[in-house]
Write a structure and sequence with these properties.
41% of the residues lie in helices and 14% in strands. It is an alpha/beta fold and 269 residues long. The chain is globular, with a radius of gyration of 17 Å. 43% of the residues are buried. The structure holds 2-phosphoglycolic acid (PGA).
Length: 269
Amino acid sequence: MSNPKRSKIIAGNWKMHKNRSEAKALAEAIGHGVKGEKDLPIVVLFPPFTSLAAVGDVLRDTPVDLGAQNMDHHDGGAYTGEVSPTMLIDLGVEYILIGHSERRQFFGETNASVNLKLKAALKHALKPIVCVGESLDERENNLTDAVVRRQVGAALADLEVEELKTLIVAYEPVWAIGTGKTCEAAEANRVCALIRATINDCFRSDESTQIGDSIPILYGGSVKPSTIDEQLQQSDLDGALVGGASLTAEDFLPLIKSAQKRIRSLISV
Ligand code: PGA
């Protein structure tokens, strides 16, 4: 059974979509849709940088939180085109996506840069969602487990267990992102459990901690209203990181409702 103590999370990654007025309208529709609701999951929206301030204003009096899709690991300085953790905090950002596969694939991010960004996020008390996942080629060559283990281990290098209280991990198989091909729920759950075990292994010298057991692990990759219920039934899967289906309130609100239903069923057990 899923651990009811772990937060349930529905996160919407808008990627490079929505200008400022479109972003405001979508945030308003989502904020309106959850107004007054109880037993909600944590809901986080990740608009593009250019809409963070506008969406932050809209979300101020709602239960929905604000996240950014990327940041630099430096506090500031001569890094043209980059945005620092403190600049994001200044805009009311609470969550940060780190190492999304599109960042790794198209913008040269590596396991080493993910580690630097994770350290910067934790230093500034931004809540990190670290993304990991294998490519189609890696899956077809039976490398899924090795790749995911390596990505998780490298992300956590040189960190202490006490620093990880706000860590969230997202398992996003690259072949399932934006393709309409969802990873089967049972297989996604197996990899989420592997991520949990890997986190525990990273800190096994301290036998008293099973930190991996308390970290929320999300699944991402073509999540939609028709797939979410089965996904949220899985024992090691605590929510979803959603791209395409986060771009309209009609698709996104049902995902939140499904998580709310799951939370209520866990409370009543
Ligand atoms: P998708 O994107 O839901 O459109 O597959 C998920 C993601 O990239 O986080």
